[in-house]
Design brief:
This protein is an all-alpha fold. The chain contains 13 helices and no strands. Helices cover 72% and strands 0% of the residues. The radius of gyration is 33 Å and the shape is elongated.
Length: 268
Amino acid sequence: MSGKNARRRAGRANGGEAVQPSRAVASTPRESTRHQPVAQQVANSQTTTGAPSNPPDRVTRAQLADKLWEISTITLRGLENAQDVWVASRFAGDGAALAAAAMRGDEKAQIAVSFILSGVRRQNNEDSDVRAAAVKGDVKAQLAMALESLTCTDERYKWLTKAQNNGNIDVCIYTGCLFVRCYLTIDDGKPERAAMKDKVILLLRVPADRGSAMAQHILGMLLYFSHYDEGTKADFLDAARWIRMAAMQGVMEAQYELGEMFRHGLFC
């Protein structure tokens, strides 16, 4: 009988078929992380893979500028539309009555006059454009022309300044949004841009500190944009703090932006 059969019988006699030894496989030493502290495991992972400071799918600076411009524009329109509704209900669109109330010291009428004129100016670059729109029957342009003829620029400036100093939330947000648009049109590196940013922050902090979601959102986005290239995690955390406040009040755009900031680990 062959030696192979003899070995099989011997294996069965011992309670089972003999297990063939596996062929040796070359292996490389591998450091186990099972018993390493979590901090050390994270450090090892970062050393291995690294963490890009600017992931390819992160929002670009130009996109942030567009978002900031759009948010400011939408906010301006919303505040202007609210004044339109109030003027229609209070004065039935009578520009003379509105101007008279403003000249008597009615702060709400003063704000309405300023917002209406500013809105029409923003949509029509030149005086001739406003007149042309009025001739064509644009009620808003007609009202603006009436208000401009019945009030003076210096007075309107004083009205807005007084309302700002009194902490009027709508005026602070409105003026802040106008300044945001100015800020975005000034070239990088110019001292005027930094000065304009400081003005915006000063204006928006008043309503933001008092709980205005609009002001919180715009302020956070301004800080995010301004720190985009050279900001520290502390800078981004400050921006995210304001954006989070707006997100907590249901501002969907702020909720999305906050999620993106978390996803890219800007302040984590």
